[in-house]
Amino acid sequence: MTPQPESNGTVRLASNGTHPGGHARATKFKLPKITVWRAIFAAIMLSGLYATYLRVFYGLGGSTNLSDKFPWGIWIAFDVMCGVGLAAGGFTLVAIVHIFRIERYKPILRPAILTAFLGYSLVVVGLLYDLGRPDRLWHPLVMWNPHSVMFEVAWCVTLYTTVLFLEFLPVVFEKFGMHKPQEWIHRISVPLMILGVLLSTLHQSSLGTLFLIVPEKLYPLWYTPILPLLFYVSAIAVGLAMTIFESWHSSRAFGRALELPLLASLARVLAVVLSVYLWVRFLDMSHRHVFGLLSQNRIETWLFALEIALMVVPTVLLYQSSIRLRPGALYACAVMVVFGFIANRLNVGTTGLEAGSGTHYIPKWSEVAVTLSIVAAGFAIFRMIAQYFPIFEAHTHEQALAEMEESEEDPVTVG
Amino acid sequence: MSKAILYDSTLCIGCKACEGACAERWGLPYDDKIAAEEKISAHKLTAIETHGDKFSRRLCMNCVQPACASVCPVGALQKTTLGPVVYDADKCMGCRYCMQACPFQVPSYEWSSRLPRMRKCDMCFERQSQGKVTACAEACPVGATKNGDRDALIAEAQQRIAEKPDQYYGKIYGLKEVGGTSVLYLSAVPFEQIGLRTNVPLEPLPETTWRVLELVPDVVSTGSVLLGGIWWITNRRAEVSKKEGKRR
Ligand code: SF4
Ligand code: SF4
Ligand code: SF4
Predict the structure, then answer these.
(1) B195, B56 in Cβ contact below 8 A?
(2) Does A68 contact B108 at a Cβ distance shorter than 8 Å?
(3) Which chain B residue has its CA at the smallest distance from A223's CA?
(4) Which of B77, B86, B209 to mutate to test the pocket of ligand 2 (most atoms within 8 A of CB)?
(5) In the beta sheet, which residues pair with residue B148?
(6) Would the CB of B60 count as within 6 Å of ligand 1?
(7) Taking CB atoms and an 8 Å limit, are A148 and B97 in contact across chains?
(8) Which of A46, A182, A260, B3 is deepest in the core (most CB within 10 A)?
(9) CATH code, domain carrying A296
(10) Residue B111 and residue B108: Cα distance in Å, rounded?
(11) pLDDT by residue (tens digit) across A254-299?
């Protein structure tokens, strides 16, 4: 749990940044080691493969526990709704660094954009599993229904994935030393980034709007006319939490120095966003007079309590600088936020709908297998790209040092 | 004139002739086993339910402002001026949002098919557009299912209630529910006792999402001005500090 020694981090980081190819080749020869993680990864991918076979040859009926009364399961609630949310760090950091021009967060911008691009690509993969007719994925682009929230989401996700691709392209150009195209991209970068933030605002909130049409089905602890607002704010929060989460993981995986002062100040922002979120939820619930429901001993009450606890605990903890500056504790808080967010989306997308739909839903093993495979693939692809491309910029460390001096956090605790 | 179906539970004898006629119209198999299934599904688009000594009929309500049509991302579902809510299987991408959104849990999916479709009653759109009555109304031996103009059927239902107030629960289901439906119910007992959902809102459901969706142009335009403006300010600040840095 202790951060990497600073000197070690610098050396390895520098070699990784300037000669990523060489560094990668060195690790490549060590690859075929069988570790526990690799075994788990292989098992997940194999089960996912078998589940894919079931999905293709036996349809949704043979691969899911969905029914006429319960048409959406975890492929929507997790793969799509959580996937899009967990990728929200991309637009949040683009806004912070390039629009609000708080440039000291630049070192963690690229990993956030990469996560977002991967996240959205995997959401599309998830959709290919979930759609009854995946071959018609493109239909909303040519057959329009502007009254449909799903139509809006489809367009936003398509456009935003394109934007993310363009935002990521400079990394590729940089790697191959292509300066001309890099200039072109740079010229359109400002409108591109504004477009990205707008599209994200629209579809992150629209995922909440999707459920406004089921007032009689969704349990009142979750159904509220301000679902879009809540989805938007919680997406920003989880985007920040994911940025902390992946910085911590990549610092371990690549032996980089953790940008701790940076992450600690990001954690401040996270604490404030979470507080706003929780307060708005509290106000909304009191206006709708639903606190009485909490005295009922129902599964919804407990799931609601779990979801709120996973948000409240990290919020309180993150207000303390001793927590923010301990990598392990900071990481734990980020993980709690991520799980709180996932709990919320699963509650809105599945469990909160069960009573109103008059049925029970427990995902089939193959649904879980596909979901886990997508997550595992996400981790693996991120790692691969981060190894071959300059994701973690070479100057990160000097910046982090400079950062530390001007940071209001106490640098003594680091290292 | 918009068409509708009036189903009078007090007249229905549970013969299931409507089920058979419906299956025939769609070319679906129908036998004793399927007749015994008391729920609608992808192979049974209308079903007679038994509630004690009362009967009730399930089918797509062909809502006046259908949630299913408003949510379908590809416009595969359309409310026709004639009344029926029709479905175009060639457009459908299988997102199943229509199933999630329908307040009556009507749309069914061909779960085990490799090229699945959504299935639901479309109030015999072709028959009605040729001036014929629906297959179920034609088959019903006792007039429990009647097909005609919505306004005329509402007037008739009100008249039936007025004539025999002791035989009817004095309301018409479908008059106001989710902004009105094209299938109307009469019953001797409160509607929840014959399996109808009475917790549905009276407001048309498409309103709930449209209220938010109609804000999109405002959000986009205001958002671009705001973000562009913030960038313009911060960019100027960055340029100034860069110049100052050089001078120093
Ligand atoms: S009952 Fe359901 S499927 Fe039928 S028109 Fe209304 S919303 Fe659509
Ligand atoms: S399942 Fe088909 S008909 Fe239903 S909303 Fe999706 S695309 Fe439209
Ligand atoms: S045909 Fe008429 S009487 Fe027979 S079950 Fe259908 S509605 Fe009832």
Answers:
(1) yes
(2) yes
(3) B208
(4) B77
(5) B4
(6) yes
(7) yes
(8) A260
(9) 1.20.1630.10
(10) 9
(11) 877 888 889 999 999 999 999 999 999 999 999 999 999 999 999 9
